[in-house]
Design brief:
Blueprint: H1 2-12, H2 28-40, H3 45-58, H4 66-89, H5 99-126, H6 135-163, H7 166-172, H8 176-194, H9 208-241, H10 245-324, H11 331-361, E1 366-370, H12 371-381, H13 383-388, E2 392-395, E3 403-407, H14 408-429, E4 435-442, E5 446-453, H15 460-463, H16 481-491, E6 495-499, E7 507-513, H17 517-522
Parallel strand pairs: 2-4
Antiparallel strand pairs: 1-3, 4-5, 5-7, 6-7
């Protein structure tokens, strides 16, 4: 199949040959040979040699002799060396996928075709078939013919090989944009025909516009295929206008510059497209990681926030069991304990629902509530904890009746976390004075609640990472409490931080938004 394709390309491009050498201004068979060696390997060098000899015999009607076999063997050897060098320099799985690969391809193609041109013409000049005066011009003709054959055909074959589904690619050609691009190529070729009698290469530069458009839009594959279309159109124009051979050679020199421009822009466009795809993949991976992190954070938050209600439920259920075992059942006290159990269950359900909504959608349920009631609710829940740890919780006088606009459950969870941390810190440190003071300061748009304990305080090393997840000074702590607390406060439009305490201990400040009259009406 390769030999048949080689002969077909050599015969179709056999125009304006230099007699008796048969040098043509364009030699696509060189591009086919290089493609075969790059994709199938050096072991196919005999096929390249046979095809070169067969083309001389069939297309050029030459007789088999020593110079023909020598040049065919040298041509084969040069392209085998070029293919070997490119295989070692490129990424085998993705040739011509980077600007670096393309530069190496340009250099190797130029060197290989130039070496073949010098050897071929030089050998025939040495045996007297070419005059030394014509040798430089014949070398340039041979060089540009082979070089353009490689630059036009080899990238196109790689692109077609990579497409896979040819039928799908052909169906895409009916898109309006591609039809318009093909029409623009036809218009540029029409200019060359229109100025056939007056330096047609001057209008050749119009071909740069559609090729740049196609290269930027479709990348390297688009540029490679467009170059084949342009070259075929150019040959058609040459035949129709009956150009001189020298004019066609000049057009092929310009075609070299066109190929370099189109392939370079195409490679850069393809590289940009790959970077964009890689960025999208990385963003998708990051989103998945964030989803997993959010799920993990929600799990940690649930475990942290449900610990206290579960502890209370365990105590209440234990008390109920003791009361049931008593000879005389205190029904009133039992009802009280059952009511407390019901309240803790309801509170746990609300915590689960609010945290789930918060971590899924960042949802909050803002409603007005008095600051004093917000803090008192938490103090009542933690009464048993404070009592068992011998901790006194007091509220300093202030504007506790000032209303807030917050998510009640989430904000109570944040305050509960701060108070529990203070109780546990003083108990673990064995503080003699165990006291927590809550105070309030009010501005026109916000309320600041301070929670100041008499415990050991926070070290300077811990201060910078205090609100980061998984940082804790507790042996059995998860390091999520303060991170969750600040997230919950910020979800209501507030903030949470720690400030230096002159009297010792730790002082946390929670700033919460105060509603305006319109906020209250909307709530």
């Amino acid at each position: 199949m390769y030999v048949a394709g080689y002969l077909a390309l050599d015969a179709s491009s056999y125009i304006y040959p230099v007699v008796p050498l048969g040098i043509t201004p364009w030699n696509p068979s060189a591009g086919l040979s290089l493609f075969l060696l790059l994709t199938c390997g050096r072991r196919f060098w005999p096929a390249v040699l046979i095809a070169a000899v067969a083309a001389d015999v069939v297309v050029r009607n030459a007789t088999v002799n020593a110079p023909m076999l020598t040049t065919a063997a040298f041509i084969t050897g040069c392209y085998v060396v070029a293919a070997t060098f490119l295989q070692r320099s490129w990424k085998v799985s993705a040739p011509l996928e980077s600007t670096r690969d393309l530069v190496i391809f340009f250099v190797v193609a130029s060197a290989a075709s130039g070496t073949v041109a010098v050897m071929f013409v030089g050998l025939y000049a040495a045996i007297g078939m070419v005059s030394m005066r014509d040798m430089p011009l014949d070398v340039l003709r041979y060089w540009v013919g082979d070089l353009n054959g490689i630059l036009v055909l080899t990238p196109a074959l790689f692109s077609i090989r990579k497409i896979g589904n040819i039928g799908f690619a052909i169906r895409k050609l009916v898109s309006p944009e591609i039809i318009l691009q093909l029409l623009s190529i036809g218009a540029a070729l029409g200019l060359i025909l229109a100025f056939a009698g007056d330096y047609p290469y001057r209008s050749f530069y119009a071909l740069f516009l559609p090729l740049i458009w196609i290269s930027a839009r479709w990348g390297l594959p688009g540029a490679a295929v467009a170059q084949v279309i342009i070259q075929l159109g150019l040959i058609t124009c040459v035949q129709l206008a009956d150009y001189h051979a020298a004019t066609f050679v000049q057009l092929q020199w310009l075609m070299t510059g066109l190929c370099v421009t189109g392939l370079t822009i195409g490679a850069m466009s393809s590289h940009r497209a790959r970077l964009e795809l890689a960025l999208l993949d990385r963003q998708a991976a990051l989103n998945r990681a964030q989803q997993f992190a959010s799920a993990g954070e929600m799990t940690s938050a649930l475990a942290h926030q449900l610990n206290q209600p579960m502890t209370a439920l365990n105590s209440y259920v234990g008390a109920c069991q003791i009361m049931v075992g008593q000879p005389i059942l205190d029904a009133a006290r039992l009802r009280d304990l059952m009511a407390k159990i019901e309240g803790e269950v309801r509170r746990s359900s609300e915590v689960v629902a609010r945290l789930r909504d918060f971590y899924r959608r960042g949802a909050t349920n803002l409603c007005p509530i008095e600051a004093g009631r917000l803090v008192d609710n938490v103090i009542q829940v933690l009464h048993r904890n404070a009592q068992s740890a011998d901790v006194e919780i007091v509220s300093r006088p202030g504007e506790w009746s000032r209303r807030l606009l917050v998510d009640t459950v989430q904000t109570e969870n944040a305050i509960q976390n701060l108070l529990l941390n203070a109780i546990e810190a003083m108990e673990m440190a064995g503080s003699k004075t165990r006291r927590i003071e809550t105070s309030i300061s009010v501005t026109q748009t916000s309320v600041e609640i301070r929670i100041h304990d008499s415990g050991p305080g926070v070290s300077a090393e811990m201060m910078a990472e205090l609100f980061e997840p998984f940082h804790t000074s507790k042996a059995d702590g998860m390091g999520m409490g303060l991170a969750i607390a600040r997230s919950l406060v910020r979800a209501s439009g507030g903030d949470l931080w720690i400030e230096p305490a002159a009297a010792g201990g730790a002082c946390f400040v929670m700033r919460l938004p105060a509603p305006t009259s319109s906020d209250v009406l909307r709530a």
